[in-house]
Automatic annotation (TrEMBL):
<dbReference type="InterPro" id="IPR039420">
    <property type="entry name" value="WalR-like"/>
</dbReference>
<dbReference type="InterPro" id="IPR000792">
    <property type="entry name" value="Tscrpt_reg_LuxR_C"/>
</dbReference>
<protein>
    <submittedName>
        <fullName>Two component transcriptional regulator, LuxR family</fullName>
    </submittedName>
</protein>
<dbReference type="GO" id="GO:0003677">
    <property type="term" value="F:DNA binding"/>
</dbReference>
<keyword id="KW-0238">DNA-binding</keyword>
<feature type="domain" description="HTH luxR-type">
    <location>
        <begin position="152"/>
        <end position="217"/>
    </location>
</feature>
<keyword id="KW-0597">Phosphoprotein</keyword>
<dbReference type="InterPro" id="IPR058245">
    <property type="entry name" value="NreC/VraR/RcsB-like_REC"/>
</dbReference>
<dbReference type="InterPro" id="IPR016032">
    <property type="entry name" value="Sig_transdc_resp-reg_C-effctor"/>
</dbReference>
<feature type="domain" description="Response regulatory">
    <location>
        <begin position="7"/>
        <end position="123"/>
    </location>
</feature>
<dbReference type="GO" id="GO:0006355">
    <property type="term" value="P:regulation of DNA-templated transcription"/>
</dbReference>
<keyword id="KW-0804">Transcription</keyword>
<dbReference type="Pfam" id="PF00072">
    <property type="entry name" value="Response_reg"/>
</dbReference>
<dbReference type="GO" id="GO:0000160">
    <property type="term" value="P:phosphorelay signal transduction system"/>
</dbReference>
<dbReference type="InterPro" id="IPR001789">
    <property type="entry name" value="Sig_transdc_resp-reg_receiver"/>
</dbReference>
<feature type="modified residue" description="4-aspartylphosphate">
    <location>
        <position position="58"/>
    </location>
</feature>
<dbReference type="InterPro" id="IPR011006">
    <property type="entry name" value="CheY-like_superfamily"/>
</dbReference>
Amino acid sequence: MITNKIKIHLADDHQVLIDGLTNLLQTVSNFEVVGNSLNGTTIYDDVLQNNADILVLDISMPEKDGIKVLQEFYSNNSSCKVIILSSYDELKIIKEVMKLNAKGYLTKKCAGEHIIQAINNVYQGQEYFSDAVREKIFHVFTHDNSKLNKDIYIENPILTPREIEIVALISLEYSGKEISEQLFISTNTVETHRKNIMRKLQTKNTIGLVKYALKNNLINP
Protein backbone atom coordinates (compact mmCIF):
# COMPACT_ATOMS: atom_id res chain seq x y z
CA MET A 1 0.00 0.00 0.00
CA ILE A 2 1.38 3.43 -0.96
CA THR A 3 1.20 6.06 1.78
CA ASN A 4 1.91 9.74 1.50
CA LYS A 5 5.22 10.69 3.06
CA ILE A 6 5.45 13.43 5.67
CA LYS A 7 7.45 16.23 4.07
CA ILE A 8 9.81 17.90 6.52
CA HIS A 9 11.83 21.10 6.26
CA LEU A 10 14.70 21.72 8.70
CA ALA A 11 15.81 25.21 9.74
CA ASP A 12 18.92 25.68 11.86
CA ASP A 13 22.08 27.75 11.56
CA HIS A 14 24.36 24.74 12.06
CA GLN A 15 24.82 22.47 9.06
CA VAL A 16 26.09 19.65 11.27
CA LEU A 17 22.79 19.56 13.17
CA ILE A 18 20.79 19.59 9.94
CA ASP A 19 22.90 16.73 8.61
CA GLY A 20 22.46 14.73 11.80
CA LEU A 21 18.69 15.25 11.86
CA THR A 22 18.42 14.42 8.18
CA ASN A 23 20.26 11.13 8.71
CA LEU A 24 18.00 10.27 11.64
CA LEU A 25 14.74 11.18 9.91
CA GLN A 26 15.67 9.30 6.75
CA THR A 27 15.55 6.09 8.79
CA VAL A 28 11.76 6.51 9.03
CA SER A 29 10.07 5.12 5.92
CA ASN A 30 7.22 7.67 5.79
CA PHE A 31 9.45 10.72 6.37
CA GLU A 32 10.97 12.80 3.59
CA VAL A 33 13.31 15.72 4.30
CA VAL A 34 12.47 18.05 1.42
CA GLY A 35 14.73 20.97 2.28
CA ASN A 36 16.67 22.97 4.82
CA SER A 37 17.47 26.58 5.63
CA LEU A 38 20.50 28.07 7.34
CA ASN A 39 19.13 31.63 7.33
CA GLY A 40 15.89 32.94 8.83
CA THR A 41 15.10 35.23 5.91
CA THR A 42 14.68 32.37 3.43
CA ILE A 43 12.61 29.93 5.51
CA TYR A 44 9.08 31.01 4.58
CA ASP A 45 9.81 31.05 0.85
CA ASP A 46 11.71 27.76 1.08
CA VAL A 47 8.79 26.03 2.77
CA LEU A 48 6.32 27.59 0.36
CA GLN A 49 8.34 26.24 -2.55
CA ASN A 50 8.76 22.67 -1.30
CA ASN A 51 5.29 22.46 0.25
CA ALA A 52 6.55 20.95 3.50
CA ASP A 53 4.04 19.57 6.00
CA ILE A 54 6.30 20.11 9.01
CA LEU A 55 8.88 22.79 9.74
CA VAL A 56 11.43 22.01 12.45
CA LEU A 57 12.63 25.47 13.46
CA ASP A 58 15.43 26.77 15.66
CA ILE A 59 14.85 29.99 17.62
CA SER A 60 18.37 31.30 17.06
CA MET A 61 18.64 32.01 13.33
CA PRO A 62 20.77 34.59 11.46
CA GLU A 63 19.16 37.86 10.31
CA LYS A 64 15.60 36.79 11.22
CA ASP A 65 15.12 34.83 14.44
CA GLY A 66 12.73 31.92 14.88
CA ILE A 67 10.08 34.03 16.63
CA LYS A 68 9.88 36.39 13.66
CA VAL A 69 9.79 33.43 11.27
CA LEU A 70 6.95 31.91 13.29
CA GLN A 71 5.11 35.25 13.20
CA GLU A 72 5.44 35.19 9.40
CA PHE A 73 3.88 31.73 9.19
CA TYR A 74 1.17 32.72 11.70
CA SER A 75 0.21 35.97 9.95
CA ASN A 76 0.00 34.19 6.59
CA ASN A 77 -2.13 31.39 8.05
CA SER A 78 0.30 28.81 6.71
CA SER A 79 -0.81 25.18 6.68
CA CYS A 80 2.74 24.06 7.52
CA LYS A 81 2.94 22.97 11.15
CA VAL A 82 5.89 24.23 13.16
CA ILE A 83 7.89 22.36 15.77
CA ILE A 84 10.43 24.44 17.69
CA LEU A 85 13.78 22.76 18.29
CA SER A 86 15.93 25.04 20.40
CA SER A 87 18.74 25.24 22.93
CA TYR A 88 16.58 27.74 24.83
CA ASP A 89 13.91 26.65 27.28
CA GLU A 90 13.02 29.96 28.94
CA LEU A 91 9.33 30.18 29.81
CA LYS A 92 8.97 33.56 28.08
CA ILE A 93 10.02 32.04 24.75
CA ILE A 94 7.89 28.92 25.25
CA LYS A 95 4.77 31.02 25.92
CA GLU A 96 5.51 33.27 22.94
CA VAL A 97 5.71 30.38 20.47
CA MET A 98 2.58 28.81 21.99
CA LYS A 99 0.70 32.04 21.30
CA LEU A 100 1.98 31.93 17.72
CA ASN A 101 0.53 28.44 17.27
CA ALA A 102 3.69 26.35 17.34
CA LYS A 103 2.55 22.74 17.53
CA GLY A 104 5.56 21.42 19.40
CA TYR A 105 8.61 22.43 21.40
CA LEU A 106 11.71 20.32 22.02
CA THR A 107 15.08 21.21 23.48
CA LYS A 108 18.06 20.15 21.41
CA LYS A 109 19.43 17.94 24.17
CA CYS A 110 16.41 15.64 23.80
CA ALA A 111 15.97 15.95 20.03
CA GLY A 112 17.20 12.47 19.16
CA GLU A 113 14.84 10.91 21.67
CA HIS A 114 11.69 12.87 20.82
CA ILE A 115 11.85 14.29 17.30
CA ILE A 116 10.35 11.29 15.46
CA GLN A 117 7.40 11.02 17.81
CA ALA A 118 6.93 14.79 17.77
CA ILE A 119 6.71 14.88 13.97
CA ASN A 120 4.26 11.98 13.85
CA ASN A 121 2.04 13.49 16.56
CA VAL A 122 2.00 16.97 15.05
CA TYR A 123 1.30 15.66 11.56
CA GLN A 124 -1.70 13.77 12.96
CA GLY A 125 -3.14 16.98 14.41
CA GLN A 126 -1.82 16.65 17.95
CA GLU A 127 0.71 18.74 19.83
CA TYR A 128 4.02 17.63 21.28
CA PHE A 129 5.91 19.34 24.06
CA SER A 130 8.79 17.47 25.66
CA ASP A 131 8.49 16.60 29.35
CA ALA A 132 10.96 19.29 30.43
CA VAL A 133 9.02 21.97 28.54
CA ARG A 134 5.67 20.80 29.93
CA GLU A 135 7.04 20.89 33.47
CA LYS A 136 8.31 24.43 32.95
CA ILE A 137 4.89 25.57 31.71
CA PHE A 138 2.90 24.06 34.54
CA HIS A 139 5.40 24.84 37.31
CA VAL A 140 4.64 28.55 36.92
CA PHE A 141 0.88 28.28 36.59
CA THR A 142 0.01 25.49 39.03
CA HIS A 143 -2.65 26.55 41.53
CA ASP A 144 -1.83 30.24 41.36
CA ASN A 145 -5.08 32.21 41.39
CA SER A 146 -3.14 35.42 40.87
CA LYS A 147 -2.55 34.19 37.32
CA LEU A 148 -6.28 34.34 36.56
CA ASN A 149 -7.15 37.31 34.39
CA LYS A 150 -9.56 39.54 36.27
CA ASP A 151 -11.30 40.32 32.97
CA ILE A 152 -11.98 36.66 32.34
CA TYR A 153 -15.69 37.22 31.69
CA ILE A 154 -15.13 38.69 28.25
CA GLU A 155 -17.47 37.74 25.44
CA ASN A 156 -16.07 34.77 23.57
CA PRO A 157 -17.38 33.56 20.18
CA ILE A 158 -16.53 29.91 20.85
CA LEU A 159 -16.88 29.21 24.56
CA THR A 160 -19.54 30.04 27.13
CA PRO A 161 -18.57 32.08 30.23
CA ARG A 162 -18.59 28.88 32.32
CA GLU A 163 -16.36 27.08 29.80
CA ILE A 164 -13.95 30.03 29.86
CA GLU A 165 -13.69 29.70 33.63
CA ILE A 166 -13.00 25.99 33.33
CA VAL A 167 -10.34 26.47 30.63
CA ALA A 168 -8.55 28.95 32.88
CA LEU A 169 -8.65 26.61 35.87
CA ILE A 170 -7.56 23.58 33.83
CA SER A 171 -4.67 25.67 32.52
CA LEU A 172 -3.64 26.30 36.12
CA GLU A 173 -3.65 22.50 36.62
CA TYR A 174 -6.69 22.32 38.89
CA SER A 175 -8.09 18.80 39.08
CA GLY A 176 -11.71 18.02 38.24
CA LYS A 177 -12.52 17.82 41.95
CA GLU A 178 -10.81 21.14 42.69
CA ILE A 179 -12.65 22.84 39.81
CA SER A 180 -15.96 21.49 41.07
CA GLU A 181 -15.22 22.92 44.53
CA GLN A 182 -14.07 26.25 43.11
CA LEU A 183 -17.16 26.68 40.90
CA PHE A 184 -19.68 24.84 43.12
CA ILE A 185 -20.61 22.31 40.44
CA SER A 186 -20.39 18.51 40.34
CA THR A 187 -17.35 16.67 39.03
CA ASN A 188 -19.60 15.11 36.36
CA THR A 189 -20.55 18.59 35.17
CA VAL A 190 -16.87 19.56 35.08
CA GLU A 191 -16.10 16.51 32.95
CA THR A 192 -18.98 17.27 30.58
CA HIS A 193 -17.70 20.84 30.17
CA ARG A 194 -14.17 19.53 29.60
CA LYS A 195 -15.30 17.23 26.80
CA ASN A 196 -17.34 20.01 25.17
CA ILE A 197 -14.39 22.40 25.39
CA MET A 198 -12.00 19.87 23.84
CA ARG A 199 -14.47 19.31 21.00
CA LYS A 200 -15.04 23.02 20.37
CA LEU A 201 -11.34 23.88 20.43
CA GLN A 202 -10.37 20.71 18.55
CA THR A 203 -7.65 19.88 21.03
CA LYS A 204 -6.87 16.62 22.76
CA ASN A 205 -4.76 17.64 25.73
CA THR A 206 -4.18 20.20 28.45
CA ILE A 207 -1.34 21.86 26.56
CA GLY A 208 -3.86 22.82 23.87
CA LEU A 209 -6.03 24.46 26.53
CA VAL A 210 -3.04 26.34 27.96
CA LYS A 211 -2.27 27.66 24.47
CA TYR A 212 -5.87 28.80 24.04
CA ALA A 213 -5.88 30.44 27.48
CA LEU A 214 -2.63 32.31 26.76
CA LYS A 215 -3.68 33.43 23.27
CA ASN A 216 -6.99 34.73 24.59
CA ASN A 217 -5.59 36.29 27.76
CA LEU A 218 -7.58 34.07 30.10
CA ILE A 219 -4.50 33.65 32.28
CA ASN A 220 -1.76 36.15 32.84
CA PRO A 221 1.88 35.46 31.90
